[in-house]
Design a protein that fits this description.
It is a single chain. By secondary structure, the chain is an alpha+beta fold. It has one domain. The chain has 3 helices and 10 strands, in the order H-E-E-H-H-E-E-E-E-E-E-E-E. The strands form 2 sheets. The protein has a 6-stranded mixed sheet with strand order 5-6-2-1-8-9. A 4-stranded antiparallel sheet has the order 4-3-7-10. A hairpin with a 2-residue loop joins strand 3 and strand 4. It is globular, with a radius of gyration of 19 Å.
């Protein structure tokens, strides 16, 4: 018969392997915007923690949402992204188009695109991804536009920024 301390230690170790044990201490996303001159479109790649997206989608839906690649989960995610991410040129907002999503480890990679003006300079961008969930959320956007690269950093309370 095993010693009770051994059994207790084993139970604690197993409990430590629950998803909560893998929770991260920082809240960030990294987005890449790349202007495609041939297509006159902007290719958008968003990388963030999958569990954070599941938490915000579950909160909005009022029930548990898993990023499983189903049409339902993708539709919820796309609807959410349209509400928090916007690229505008003048008064005209680009309409986001869903390309897809893949899960890699604890990260979600989301692929979108939108039609764009002749370039991204002077366009404005809003990125409030996960701001309603985390006060310390930081969203970094790297913009690649006709051979130039610029980075924008969004924190809670930031509305929109002009792309240089």
């Amino acid at each position: 018969m095993k010693h009770p301390i051994y059994i207790l230690s084993l139970c604690i170790a197993i409990a430590a392997l629950t998803p909560a044990a893998f929770a991260h201490r920082y809240h960030t996303s990294v987005t890449r915007l790349e202007y495609n001159t041939e297509e006159k479109s902007v290719e958008i790649t968003v990388q963030t923690f999958a569990d954070d997206l599941e938490a915000v989608l579950s909160k909005r839906a009022g029930s548990k949402v898993r990023l499983d690649g189903s049409k339902h989960a993708n539709a919820l995610l796309f609807d959410y992204l349209r509400s928090v991410f916007q690229l505008k040129s003048g008064n005209s907002a680009g309409e986001l188009q869903w390309i897809g999503m893949e899960l890699k480890g604890h990260s979600a990679w989301i692929y979108l695109q939108t039609k764009a003006p002749l370039n991204l300079s002077k366009a404005s961008l809003s990125n409030a991804l996960l701001f309603e969930l985390f006060e310390d959320q930081v969203n970094i956007v790297n913009v690649h536009n006709r051979g130039r690269t610029a980075s924008l950093v969004f924190k809670r309370g930031d509305n929109s920024q002009e792309i240089p």
